[in-house]
Amino acid sequence: MPLGSRRTPAAACLALLGLTLFGIALVSPPTPPVFAKPAIPLERPIAVRVSVIPFTFDRDHPEKTKFGRLVFRGGLNIFARSTHFGGFSGLALDPSGGSLLAISDAGSWMRARLDYDGRRLKGLSSVTMGPILGKDGKPLRTVSKQDAEGFALTSGDTSQGTALVSFERDHRIMRYPFTPDRFGPPTGIIPLPKAARGMSGNLGLEAIATIRAGRLKGTVVAFSERLKDARGNLKGWLIGGPTPGTLTIRRLSGFDITDAAGLPDGGLVLLERRFRYSEGVKMRIRRIKAKDLRRGTLIGGEVLLEATDILNIDNMEAITVHRARDGATILTLMSDDNFSAFQRSLIMQFALP
């Protein structure tokens, strides 16, 4: 979901002021020629030339790497002149961490190579973008159909396999096969729980993940951005697996869920966001242990990191997990720039010791 999606001219000015405070001050990328989602979808895969500016998480203390429970392993501000570049809301990495596949809420996908300097993320190369296809084999063309938000691999890797994609507005979870140059058409749909029907149009299925180990292995976990129970806590669902049903996540300090990813031990990480025009944007990463993933209980989890826009964050909407060669569990995050000149597409990595 966009930050401040219902903007008046005055609100847009406030957003510009706030967002500039957490933009990168050292180098300014060229101004994008677009301020909204592209009106016409991509018809076929295209190569995209991308520029990259590395950044530190703490601008005032660039030598600092420890933040909360996590260790920062590099960040990239990425931008391109393509009108289709942006809006990234879900992603996956291959097991080596060298290849990235992301989806955009404008109905497109991006595949790229991640480059490293030792352990540190340093660049992005070989970037290709293409359309997400509908059941008819043609690119998705309406906003209600294009709004992909959650992404989870179920087989293969980032070059070829099968993934689940969750959409809001027209709420659905679709199973998508993909190859190096084609994403879809979908081969099936995952039925939504009845409780999910209460989601509003732009506060729908923001996050989807699969459990990777343990008693719930293979279970699909889906979360609405802000569907709350009677006590104000956030609702999600275990879909399939041995114990399907409703999950309840304790809502802390007004944060909403923007993404989730399975951990190697069968647990989950949640990516959360809070945005107010008066205070800017905030980000939080929360870990839920495998033993706590049970229906019918209120789940709190452990806060791994909470950050305000004093640090280098933006509208963080995507998270994925892989094991590095050194054995560390790496969390890769990506932001949705809303196709705005005043926001950024960021990729950053943290190690979970």
What do you see in this structure?
The structure is a single chain. The protein is built from two helices and 25 strands. It has 353 residues and is mainly β. It has one domain (9-352): Neuraminidase, CATH 2.120.10. The strands form five sheets. Strands 2, 3, 4, 23, 24 and 25 form a six-stranded antiparallel sheet that branches. It has a five-stranded antiparallel sheet with strand order 1-8-7-6-5, with no helix packed on it. Strands 9, 10, 11, 12 and 13 form a five-stranded antiparallel sheet that branches. The radius of gyration is 19 Å and the shape is globular. The two termini are 31 Å apart. Mean pLDDT is 89; it is low at 5-34.
Q: What gyration radius follows from the Cα positions, in whole Å?
A: 19 Å
User: What global shape is seen?
Assistant: globular
Total separate domains: 1
Tally of strands? 25
Strand share of the residues? over 45%
- Major beta-sheet overview: 6 strands, antiparallel
Query: Structural class of the secondary elements?
Result: mainly beta
- Look at the structure and give the mean pLDDT: 89
- Low-confidence segments, given as residue ranges, are 5-34
Query: Considering DSSP H and I runs of 4 or more, what fraction of the residues is helical?
Result: under 10%
**CATH fold name:** Neuraminidase
- Under CATH at level 1, the class stands as Mainly Beta
Terminal-residue CA separation: 31 Å
How many helices?
Answer: 2
- Architecture per CATH nomenclature, i.e. the level-2 architecture: 6 Propeller
- The topology string of helices and strands comes to HEEEEEEEEHEEEEEEEEEEEEEEEEE
